[in-house]
Each structure stands twice: as C-alpha cells, then as structure tokens.
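Title: [Solved] Oxidoreductase 3D structure

Original question kept below for reference.
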Amino acid sequence: MNVNGVAAIVTGGGSGLGAATGRALAAAGARVALLDLNEGAAAAVAEEIGGLALPCDVADAASAEAAVARAATAHGPARILVNCAGVATAGRIVGRNGPLDLQAYAKVIQVNLIGSFNLMRLVAAGALALDPLEGGERGVIISTASIAAYEGQVGQAAYASSKAGIVGLTLPAAREFAPAGIRVCAIAPGIFETPMLRGLPQEVQDSLGAAVPFPSRLGKPEEYAKLALAIIDNSMLNGEVIRLDGGLRMQPK
Ligand SMILES: NC(=O)c1ccc[n+]([C@@H]2O[C@H](COP(=O)([O-])OP(=O)(O)OC[C@H]3O[C@@H](n4cnc5c(N)ncnc54)[C@H](O)[C@@H]3O)[C@@H](O)[C@H]2O)c1
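Solution (posted by the thread starter after getting help):
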C-alpha cells in the first residue's frame, strides 16, 4: 500500500518504537494519529510531524472507541494501524514474597494483548467499510510481539505470554480479513534502544547489545519503523510474524 495521504493510527506513539513509526509514516505522507496514555509525549511527537495526538488507554473499550472516532473525524477512517503501546512488567511466578499478584499478571495481558486486539477490532471495522485501493487492498494492521514470545526468560511469564498472544492472533485475523483485503502482520523485536532500555546503566545496555550476534548492539527504533513501512509497502506479506533481532536468541536468564 502506498501510504501517501492515507490515515494511520499508531498506538504508543509518544515514545520509542511507536514514535519512530509515526515519524516514518508522516515522512512518507501518511496522516498520522498518535494514541497514547501519555498525551503530553504524544503531543510533542505530533507537533514535530504535523500529526494528531489523542489520549487513549488501549486496554479500555470506551477510551479506544473515542480515540479512533476522533482520529476518523480529523483524517478519515484509518487504513493503517501499528500497535506499539505496551508495558514490560517483570516478576517471577513465585517470587521471594510469594505468588505473583494476579492483577500484575492481568495488567500486562490487558495492555499488551487485549489492547492490541481492541484497536485491531475498531480499526478493522472502519477499514472494512472503505473502498478498496489498487490491488483490492483496504488496510494493513501491524502489532508488536517480542522475541520473548518464543524465548521468554525467567521473570517474563506475564510479558512473554502477552506477546505469544499477539503471535497467535496474527494468522486468524489475517484469514478473517483476507476476503476484504486487510492484511495483518506482527513484528517480534529483539532488544531496542527505547526510553525503557535507555534507563538501564550503560554497562547493562552494552552487555545486552553484545549478546546480539550481528550487529552487536541494540536495535534502533528507526529500524523497527523501516520494517513496519516495508510490511505496509509489500502486499505479499500477510499472516506473518517477523523477528527483528540481529540473530539474538535469548537465554533462560
Ligand atoms: N524496546 C524493546 O526492546 C522491545 C522489544 C520487544 C518488544 N517491544 C515492544 O514494543 C512496543 C513498544 O515498546 P517501546 O520500547 O517503544 O516502549 P516505550 O515504553 O518507549 O513506549 C511505550 C508507549 O506505550 C504507551 N502506553 C503504555 N500503556 C498504554 C496504554 N494502556 N494505552 C496507551 N498507551 C500506552 C506509553 O505511554 C509509551 O508511550 C511494546 O509493545 C513493547 O513490549 C519492545
């Protein structure tokens, strides 16, 4: 799909991978709405790219419905969705203080998995009602998994299972929307240099980067954005989860 002039929604657009994707989409001519719990962060990126910042809790049905409706009023219904909103809470299933709080587990599933599904259902409903573009394409939906979906480490039970849910969601969604020309893919990043990672001490960042076979460094958010745009551009990519990790396979700990 040629993104020029097309309405796009990026969740988690105020930071990290979402902000980089919003910048790349806008540079390619898309009309970008950045949805984020952190409205101030989204507003700063939106101002820079001439986009729209909307407050949204992706885990909440009414909040997402309102944000998607406001984006449609400003830009028309979105044909592109990139789900980047996420949280990475760590914790053992049974830690020093006993079993993990069930709400802590549920929160990660709620934001990462249910939040991605929430936006998928709303954006797909809008795109289904649009006329097809050249080649019969109506939309492209990309969610963000993680290599933790396949190699979750000790302490990543909640995060890894939320991301495995994204992997499992991708094919049935692609199959369901195929007759309407809406493609669904996911990206499974390795370790990327975002505010979350930049908060770690430099030596920890260096050792994480050194574990990556090649290139031996953290991924750059722009490299994630490049893949998102490549997926949107290449109509043959559908129902697939693509690892973006420099060959990294995470160890148990
Ligand atoms: N950085 C990495 O190494 C890495 C690796 C694999 C996967 N990922 C995934 O990529 C995605 C983006 O991560 P990032 O590193 O850019 O993180 P980040 O913390 O820089 O950005 C995440 C954004 O999501 C927003 N957000 C959090 N909860 C929200 C909610 N309920 N509703 C709306 N917005 C919400 C935050 O405000 C923030 O702006 C996440 O899903 C993360 O799990 C990141």
